[in-house]
TrEMBL record:
<protein>
    <submittedName>
        <fullName>Protocatechuate 4,5-dioxygenase beta subunit</fullName>
    </submittedName>
</protein>
<keyword id="KW-0223">Dioxygenase</keyword>
<dbReference type="GO" id="GO:0008198">
    <property type="term" value="F:ferrous iron binding"/>
</dbReference>
<keyword id="KW-0560">Oxidoreductase</keyword>
<dbReference type="Pfam" id="PF02900">
    <property type="entry name" value="LigB"/>
</dbReference>
<dbReference type="InterPro" id="IPR004183">
    <property type="entry name" value="Xdiol_dOase_suB"/>
</dbReference>
<dbReference type="GO" id="GO:0016702">
    <property type="term" value="F:oxidoreductase activity, acting on single donors with incorporation of molecular oxygen, incorporation of two atoms of oxygen"/>
</dbReference>
<feature type="domain" description="Extradiol ring-cleavage dioxygenase class III enzyme subunit B">
    <location>
        <begin position="9"/>
        <end position="271"/>
    </location>
</feature>
Length: 280
């Protein structure tokens, strides 16, 4: 049967896609940011996931104010990098896993999570930057990907509690797929950042690190952090962190931390990254 073998959390800062594509990964500014992914790149080469369920948010590239799915699952064959204003990044197309994706969609919907099913969309930095951070430059991504898009751009985003519960339901869905597959789940987005208004530039390393501590904890207190706390402590865009709870919820109560990285500054925010293993 298919199994979720690990969870990865990562920021998806668009500037890191630019740094990667322009070969600036080891310069003075970006060096300490990318160094925190060296461990993970080596680990991924050994782990060789068959599928990554990649929880991310679209930033008005595929969706806009005309339609705003709270939770959407990509069931398509392939996804192209989106044009985010400077042309699409020159990274490989993302290859889907329609069989597992449709199975997860059916399982989630019968489990009372009313997913939006998407067969065609382009994917932006929310999805392609974490792939570059984890796999570096390549001709083809070394894994298939099931995009799972979450609305964290337009109020109201889903609660942390709902995200955690969705993660639990995803784990049930994966475990009921008969084919032997090594599946990872990634939660991307965050950390604290505000890109607009009077508090633009806000970064809260103390809160971000407490969030990472809570992800490592055996209890599930982190799922109950209310929206207002994310907004107050982590700025208007820090709510992206609720997506990490889908990843965390899928791993069960006890987890083992394999790797953790945090560095400020990174563009207008911090870089946060964690690799967790279910500890059963
Ligand atoms: C920045 C970070 C993000 O997560 C994002 O989606 C857009 C911009 C930034 O730091 O500039
Ligand atoms: Fe973002």
């Amino acid at each position: 049967m298919a199994r979720i073998t690990a969870g990865v959390g990562s920021s998806h800062v668009p500037l890191l896609g630019v740094a990667h594509d322009q070969g600036k990964e080891r310069d003075d500014y970006f060096g300490p940011i990318f160094a925190g992914y060296d461990w993970t790149r080596e680990w991924e080469k050994q782990e060789k996931p068959d599928v990554v369920i990649l929880v991310y948010n679209d930033h008005a590239s595929a969706f806009d104010m005309r339609f705003i799915p709270t939770f959407a699952i990509g069931c398509g064959e392939r996804y192209k990098p989106a044009d985010e204003g400077w042309g699409p990044r020159k990274v490989p197309d993302v290859i889907g896993h329609p069989d597992l994706a449709w199975h997860i969609a059916q399982s989630l919907i019968l489990d009372e999570f009313d997913m939006t099913i998407i067969n065609e969309m382009d994917v932006d930095h929310g999805l392609t930057v974490p792939l570059s951070m984890m796999f570096g430059a390549c001709e083809a991504w070394p894994t298939t990907v099931i995009p799972l898009a979450v609305n964290v751009v337009t109020y109201p985003p889903p609660s942390g509690n709902r995200c955690w519960a969705l993660g639990e339901a995803i784990a049930r869905a994966v475990e009921s797929f008969p084919e032997d597959l090594n599946v990872q789940i990634w939660g991307t987005g965050g950390m604290s950042h505000q890109l607009q208004g009077a508090r633009a530039g806000l970064i809260n390393p103390e809160w971000d690190n407490r969030f990472l501590d809570l992800l490592e904890a055996e209890d599930d207190a982190v799922r109950h952090i209310p929206h207002i706390e994310y907004l107050r402590e982590t700025g208007s865009e820090g709510i992206e962190m609720v997506m990490w709870l889908i990843m965390r919820g899928a791993l069960g109560h006890k987890v083992k931390t394999l790797h953790r990285h945090y560095h400020v500054p990174c563009s207008n925010t911090a870089i946060g990254h964690i690799v967790l293993e279910p500890n059963t």
